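If you are new to this repository, start here. Below is one unmodified record pulled from the training split, so you can see the exact layout before writing a loader.
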Amino acid sequence: MALEKLVVIDKIEILEDGQMQIRQATKIMEDGKEIGKIFHRHCLAPGQKIDKENLRTQIIALAIWTPAVIASYKEKLEK
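And here is the target side for that same chain:
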C-alpha cells in the first residue's frame, strides 16, 4: 500500500471583469487510486503580482490582463 499526495491546479475561471478564480486540489492517492481530495481556492485581480503562481496561471493572466482590462478593473474599484 503506497500513499501519495498530489497537488494540482484543476480549475481556472475567468470572470467578466478579468478576475481569475484558481482552485487547487490536493489529492491523496493509494496505489494509484484517489481516496481523498481537498480544495483550496484563491482569486487574482487584474494587474496583481503573479510571480508566485504556477506557470499555467501566469500564462493565462498575461494573455487576458491587457492594459485595457487592468484599467477597466481599477476604474471599477474607484466607483
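Two things worth knowing about this chain: The chain has a mean pLDDT of 96. The chain has one domain: 3-78.
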